[in-house]
Design goal:
Elements (H helix, E strand, L loop, with lengths): L3 E5 L1 H15 L3 H19 L9 E7 L3 H14 L4 E6 L8 H13 L3 E2 L2 H6 L1 E8 L11 H12 L1 E8 L20 E5 L2 E2 L8 H4 L1 E5 L13 E4 L22 E5 L6 H11 L6 E7 L3 H7 L4 E5 L12 H8 L4 E4 L7 H13 L5 E3 L6 H4 L9 E3 L3 H4 L8 H10 L3 E4 L4 E4 L4 E4 L11 H14 L10 H24 L12 H4 L3
Parallel strand pairs: 1-8, 2-3, 2-5, 3-4, 5-6, 6-7, 7-9, 10-19, 11-12, 11-14, 12-13, 14-15, 15-16, 16-17
Antiparallel strand pairs: 1-10, 17-18, 18-19
Helix pairs in contact: 2-3, 3-4, 8-15, 10-11, 15-16
Amino acid sequence: MKYFDPILSNGQAAAFERQWFERTGISELEVIASIGKKISESFIFEFPAFAKKRPCRVLAVLGSGHNAADAMAFLESFAQKAPLEISLLIDKEESLKPNTLHFYRELTRKYSARTIGADEALKNDWDIAVEGISGMSYRPPMRDGMRRKIEIINGAKALVKISIDIPAGLSDWPETKQPVFIADITYATAIAKRCLFDVNNRKYCGRIRYIDAGFFGETECPGGLKITKDNILQQLSIPRASNTDKRHYGRLLIVSGSRKYAGAALLNASTAIRSGCGFVFACVPEEYKGAFCAREPSVIWHECQGAPNGELALENFGTLNALAGGCDALLCGSGLTDSAESAALVSDLLKENPNLPCVLDADAVRPKILQSLAGRRAPAIITPHEGEFLRIACDISDNSLMEAAKKYSCTIMLKSNLTRICSGGEIIYCAGGSPALARAGSGDILCALTAGLLANKTLFQGDADRPVKVCALAAQWLGKAAVKAGAEFSESALATSDLIPFLPKALV
């Protein structure tokens, strides 16, 4: 099964889409309706409160082409599930393309959508503002009518602003002097466009959600960048074989935490035991073993001697090395601190266990430790955020990501609002995350989820891209759990540990 789709330029996407419709004979109207339904489902999953408003006041600022059709197909599907009061700022009816005209008439006839002018759009308060002004067909220079629409929707007062496909004003040819729609969320429809992933465009796109229309199937398509599909989560829904036991699902050893950052070890272990891993062994400073065992009795806790400053002492090496010899993966780094003793402890474990897959996070993502990956025969994954990555690279560009992965012979999962995964070749994006993860400790959850999946010998067996797929699965899983937690409790009123119970809920 294919878990990644290509990210294409607007020009590549337009050519591919045209050929796809010619080859399949499927109507554009059918695809637009399907896309609208999927956007509606995604929006309600993430923002269920808007479906309960009585009514939900929606402003849609639209062009005349298929981008506007996608936007209105979304509103039609949304209106079937929630009471909407829809106002449209749109071109004259006679200028609309046939598919756009179809959805315009559906909205006005079935759901009493009304057409308004700029003054009313700017005067009123809206719950949702939807932009469907232009998509991948836009070519500079910008016409005055389009410029005015972007200014209107940017100036409109709305709780959440949505872009369909691409924020209006973005293209393959950046314009620095032209306005661009500033979205809170962008639904990348059918084909993920490259301009959405340009670091300079982050301020326009908001959170990105990929709406898979099934264009690519199992085929490949040119493009050095790819995006993760939600179908990767199906790996976690496959029934386990009846003749298996805990040994089939792997043993994970966690070496993390310190007196200063004891909670990191607890977050690691509490997450890993829910990853599907058969055994989780966690090594922590001895004073925390009792409390942690009471909190997570499913984890096998090992007490370690602490160095004078509270970090794990090098004298624990013999015990940890013996444990590592019977494990299927090793996780190191969360909350260890940047001490000489902890660095030496991790480095020695890596050197003495060259056949043991490993995940290195946080304080283990340092050149003096990553040098120990040289010559290892087992997969190595590192999971830095952008600040930690700058310890080993000059910037956060795609080129630096590829160079660092090659230099240290590892797979890198570079955490951000758009997480990137690279083993030295193509770059995989995961766009399923949530600002609910913007809190200390969320990285401890992600690395532990990754390590638990890496220890599980039943996942992606014999796959040469196993480390990349494990990373993508972990990122997509945590992202969906965070969206679900945010939808239930809000994205603000959460502790990091509150995210862990949503891991199983995300798979239901």
